[in-house]
Amino acid sequence: MLSLLYLYRGRAFVVYWIGSWLFVAAALGIVARGYDDVTLRNVLTGLALLFTVFAAGLMRLSVESFPEHSVRWDGRRLMAMSTAALWFLAGPFVVPLPAIVFTGTMATAALIAWSGAGYLQLARRLRAAGALVMGVGLTIIGASHFIATVLSLFVDLGTGQRLSSLTVITTLFVALGMHILVFEDMIDELRITNRQLEGANEEVRRLAITDALTGCHNRRFFDEVERRELERRRRYGTPLAVVFIDVNHFKRLNDSLGHDRGDAVLWMIGNLLKGQVRQSDYAIRWGGDEFLLLLSCTEDEARTKAANLKAAFEQERVAAALPQYLGLSVGVATVSPEEGLRAAIREADAQMYSDKLSESGV
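Request: output the structure for the sequence above.
Response:
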């Protein structure tokens, strides 16, 4: 089952689980048989203890690698494995076997309990039920190994056998927690993927309603909000005004200084407009060198804002050493709930044209 989970998920912690279970199975297979030769029995006992320590160590690595994809080995871990192998394989030839058994069971208990603590921390951080089940189960197994080892030094009342039965039962819960955690990891990845898709869709929508040059909204955005803003005006009676803006002699600027300089001017105007509007207002590039402001304010306030905008543009023009003939013409109109936004835009456009004529002295 774990192998199938790895093929499906490709997570490093599942590889460590698989290795841990294989080492446990190998250790049980070794100790299940009896051996008449004392030396062979001692060596195989050391090998079985080495496998249990490796199994417990891999369980700890599974916590540290969650939820990475790649299995990583470093020199520190390889050195620890080599030291353990030397102790459990060569130790039976130079020290009494009970010392080997004691160090093996204590090391296993410590590693399993450490793994349990790691999964409990993981459960707290991720709110993962599978990690909680594994953390509790591994902590119980580690504690039972420790108790059995300590009691074996003093008495032999069958406690070790009872604790072994508890270990088997608890191991089943750990296995259940593994499958739950893989499922939760998959669900979490789906959530992340969905959030990324939502973010990508939002970015696509933002690009679709934003003018690439100026950063203002575009006509498509206006088509989306036109009905909504008019409905809000009708329902709540909030004031709504439009300011129509046109750049004077923009074609002359393009012809004399080039389109790159003209684009720079449009970008500058876009920044000015976005700086003039509040969060509830909209700055829209209407087309070419024409812009539109939708303002939640009265007509007088809109006229004040239009005057401030012209003054701000004049300051920017001087600072950027742009031609003196360059300027803004503006028109302002109030939106009537009965006539709608289009009528207000036509009126503001007409006022803008009058402002343009007055600027030129006609």
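The radius of gyration is 38 Å.
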